[in-house]
Amino acid sequence: KPQNHYQWDVKTEDLGNFLTGLGYPGLVARGNGEGHGHIQWPGALEDFSLTGVSGHASLNLKDGQFSKVQTGGLGRLISLFSLQTLPRRITLDFNDVFSAGFAFDHLTADLALDHSRLDTRDFEMAGPAAHVKLFGKVDLANETSDLTAQVAPSVEDSVTLASTVVGGRWWVRLPGCCKRFWVTPLIRR
């Protein structure tokens, strides 16, 4: 039986415009970087199906912003740890954090696809709001996922505020301890 095999190497200076050109407008604003990968499936071109495709992709992106991040799930988790917005969090108001999307300074990912199952390997995203690591599996055909997220909210401004309130030179002397707080929730859909 014939095999279809496609390989790509892409470099872009504007990820948002690139995705719009591919028919996916509004997902990402700005961003630059590169991606490499390949996919294959048995049969002719018209025989493509998610259940038969396999492949691999790696991404290395910088300075972009996901246009809209829902305020549920991960968005709510990331915004929970901001001391400056504690009064808003008590009333469960998270709209300020992701109203314009999630900005990232750097995003890297290694993804493997095997018969509609996407394995997220070493997905890491760092931005002003948080440092996020994501790993697990997504079943594209059944639209289900089993993912684990490690989130380190950026609390640099919060540490400054806390050290002022506490009078805490002690806080300032332990920046590695105080700047990052790891949370490892299991997110299942």
UniProtKB/TrEMBL annotation:
It holds the Pfam family YhdP. InterPro entries: YhdP, YhdP_central. Residues 2-168 form the YhdP central domain. PANTHER family: PROTEASE, PROTEASE-RELATED. This is YhdP central domain-containing protein. It comes from mine drainage metagenome.
